[in-house]
Amino acid sequence: MSVFAGVELGGTKVVVAFGSGPDDLTDPVRIPTTTPDETLQKVERLIAQVATTGALQAIGVATFGPARLHRSSPDWGCILPTPKPGWSGAVIGPRLARTFGVPVAFETDVAGAAMGEGRWGAARGLTDFAYVTVGTGVGVGLIVNGAPLHGALHPEAGHIKVCRDPARDPFKGCCPFHGDCLEGLISGPALAARTGCPGEALTDKHPVWDLVIDYLAQAMATLALVASPQRIIIGGGVGSHATVLAGTRLRLARTLNGYLPHLASPEAVSAFLVPPTLGDRSGVLGAIALAQALSTSSQTTEAPDHPASQGSPEEDHDDVRQRDE
What we know:
The protein is an alpha/beta fold. It has helices spanning 36-51, 93-100, 109-120, 182-186, 188-195, 208-227, 242-256, 266-272, 282-299, 313-324, and strands at 3-9, 13-21, 24-25, 29-32, 56-63, 104-108, 129-134, 138-144, 147-148, 231-235, 273-274.
């Protein structure tokens, strides 16, 4: 029986599970994210238990970023310069490929979650959609024609600028790069800096939620106008807050003001902006979905000289787009 490993690598914890989908999934194991070597050693020990049975077909990694996703790059599968201490330059994809000799898919955590929701969850049957997480950071995964969107890097829409009125909101943001970008204004650390306590400790009536709703609605309007997704899924500790989701739907409708005909009614906006169906399993299931897709594509091509250079869904979709053009 084929088994796929899913690794959701976050800034504070790693989630590892094995299986082929929501109905065939081991209990996720959570590992604290410490140093790269210590963390990956623990991940490898878990994967080795399955690899020794001979059933392991592929590994999917959905990681915090920024990360190098293009497999033709010499630093494919590595973490790029990041504020996470010790993780800049960490080698992940090639290391796992060498260790286990199976294909390794490597994606961002938000794109991985998006792929999970597209395969089994809130975006099932759609080809163009977005997954937005608002938690420790703000990340956006864009799926276009069924594949994660990659350009020079990968979408970093959590750092777009939104309109902040200093009189209404004197908080200048906490992003070390941009100050009052979206992440700098509404992420978990931003809420803690604003209020002195974590978001989960705030009451539903706290005035900070209206600011979060305003900024998030601005960003979702920008995303709807620029990328034209069929649906946007909002997750993360802050994004999943009932007050935030309901308020953002109302504010988004007012912001768009009927300009987009497919979002001209409250019902349409409610169906457009939704929570994840897979809950906190979106990321690890997305990693498994990526591993499955890579395993399938690898079986239809000639095996390369070493695991780290195997084909990817990204390359397959690039080929399709070139043929279409």
